[in-house]
Amino acid sequence: MNLIIVNKSGTRAKNVALSPFLLGFLVLLITIAFVSLAYTITHFNKNKNNLNISQPLPSNLSGDDQLLALLELQRQELQQTKLLATSQVEALSLRVAKMQAQMMRLDQLGSKLVKVAKLNKKEFDFSKAPAIGGPETINLPEIEARIAAVLKELENKENQLSVIETLIEQRMTANLQKPTGKPAEKGWISSYFGKRKDPFTGRSAVHRGIDVAGKEGAKIIATAHGVVTWAEERSGYGKLIEIDHGNGLITRYGHCESIDVQVGQQIEQGDALGSIGSTGRSTGPHIHYEVIKNGVKINPLKYVRQKRVALNLQ
Fold it and tell me: Are 151 and 273 in contact (CB under 8 A)?
């Protein structure tokens, strides 16, 4: 390609030959310049449109003055945005403080549960206070980090409390399934477990239970949670109630006057089972009370002497 250059008077002309390489390079420079100019204009108009300008710019201002006025409005918008962000950060900071206060209350509750349930304090340590404080100048990244730390701590506390709750429930269930206290609301032990004289023959015999004497018709109560497995007459026992408490433990209540439960019925500790009587091989109103562990009749006295204690978390 040939490029002809003419002077102002037009009297002289100069012919310049351009190689394809130089021509391509020249076209590339012109294209880059055009694209840069277009991007600059577009970017400026976009930023101008994004500004929240509450008042129009005076039309009598020059181009430079309009640009300065526009920049001032942008500065004001940025200042308002900063104030809004500051107020939001303060609100988040207050929320973090409330969360930390709630976590401290959880710590107190957790410590009390550990003490009441007699758990290992080293395994469930609620004495460590949550991290609080910080510099006076609060920024959003710091607040986000503090929130993340508090949430993580709350998650740990929640897991600990969940484990404690499970352990307490298991312990309470085990305690409720363990025979405790006398099998009657009122009464006294009239005969103990072991060797004694048979009341009918006068001979030495082994008494494999205890007798709790009481007023005829008085309530017989379940000494533990369980399921009724017998609720009718049996030889020697008269009217008999038998309850399976699980874990190899069974209790029997003999010589009943009446039976108020049926086989398969679920029983809770303290439920009324029937009434004291003198049915079967008996000399008077009483309950023949037996505890069977893994198929062997054992002395019920240690269970009878234990008090029924409810877990108090207050």
Answer: no
- From residue 89, alpha-carbon distances to 80, 104, 130, 134 in Å are 14, 23, 20, 14
| Structural domain containing residue 296 | 188-304
Euclidean distance between CA atoms 150 and 22, whole angstroms: 66
Helix (H) or strand (E) holding 240: strand 238-246
Instruction: Note whether 194 and 300 are same-domain residues.
Output: yes
Closest of 158, 162, 210 to residue 183, by C-alpha: 210
Residue 249 CB-half CA count within 13 A: 18
16 contacts 3 by C-beta, under 8 angstroms: yes
For residues 135 and 186, the answer to whether their CB atoms sit within 8 Å is no
**In whole angstroms, what is the distance from residue 273 CA to residue 292 CA?**
18
Is 218 in the same domain as 159?
no
Which residue has 């009217």 as its token pair?
239
Tell me, what's the pLDDT at 4?
A: 52
For helices 140-176 and 63-117, what crossing angle results, to 10°? 20
- Write the CA distances from 120 to 111, 113, 126, 157, integer angstroms: 11, 11, 12, 16
Average pLDDT by stretches of 10, the chain with 314 residues: 52 52 55 55 50 50 57 65 65 70 68 67 60 52 71 73 72 79 92 91 92 95 94 95 93 97 94 96 95 95 81 46
**Residue 173: its pLDDT value, please?**
72
Total Cβ atoms within 10 A of residue 154: 16
pTM of the model: 0.53
Number of domains in the chain: 3
- Exposure pattern of 101-139 as b/e (b: 16+ CB <10 Å)? eebeebbeebeebbeebebeeeebebeeebeeeeeeeee
In this structure, is residue 203 part of a structural domain? yes
pLDDT at residue 314, as a whole number: 46
Q: Can you give the pLDDT at residue 190?
A: 94
- Which is it for strands 210-213 and 286-293: parallel, antiparallel or unpaired? antiparallel
